[in-house]
């Protein structure tokens, strides 16, 4: 893993962890000491209470641009124009995805480093798992839905899915990786969000 990617991911986790405890009004220094002491005990091989590592303090937020194929390949343009249009529409998808990610970061008051992935119309943000965060995400989703219904007539859109995570979920595990299982569940959440596009039934 590149040092840049490692540092960026570490920063995203640190910000989410700090924001979670700060929003809860916890003694941040006390929590830091507790996490550090537990880490030292684990490394020494001692079995002890690991509540600090098992609380769902993180919220993984995934965004996905749906309808990419229809958006990029729409229209019956001549062969001469196809290459230029494909490049332009691909850039358009990247731009909309980036703007949606920035919209989420701004709504949650998180720094750019909290976005750890943005590629192929998908982005991943690490946020604190609080009630306020979930409420803000729902508001952003409603705003995105309104914009896409007005500008694309619902043929494309950006869906948001979020999933709580524990510190233990990011640790290296024996056998099946906890992180792999976490990402699998997050993608399942995203598939469910795609089936409820624009919340029309609500």
Summarize the structure.
The chain is built from 7 helices and 4 strands, in the order H-H-H-E-H-H-E-E-H-E-H. The chain is α+β, with helices and mostly antiparallel strands and 202 residues long. The chain has a 4-stranded antiparallel β-sheet with strand order 2-3-1-4, sandwiched between helices.
3D structure, described in words:
The structure is a single chain. With 202 residues, the chain is an alpha+beta fold. It contains seven helices and four strands. It has helices at 3-24, 28-43, 51-54, 68-72, 79-108, 131-152, 178-195, and strands at 58-66, 115-119, 122-128, 157-165. It has a four-stranded antiparallel β-sheet with strand order 2-3-1-4, sandwiched between helices. Helix 5 (79-108) runs antiparallel to helix 6 (131-152). The longest helix has 30 residues, at 79-108. The termini are far apart.
Give me the count of strands: 4
Helix content: 55-70%
Mean pLDDT equals 84
Between the first and last Cα atoms, what is the distance in angstroms? 43 Å
Q: What's the tally of helices?
A: 7
Proportion of strand residues:
5-15%
Radius of gyration: 20 Å
Shape field:
elongated
The largest sheet has its strands arranged as: 2-3-1-4
In N-to-C order, the SSE pattern is HHHEHHEEHEH
Which structural class best describes the helix and strand composition?
alpha+beta
Task: Please outline the major beta sheet.
Answer: 4 strands, antiparallel
Low-pLDDT runs:
45-49
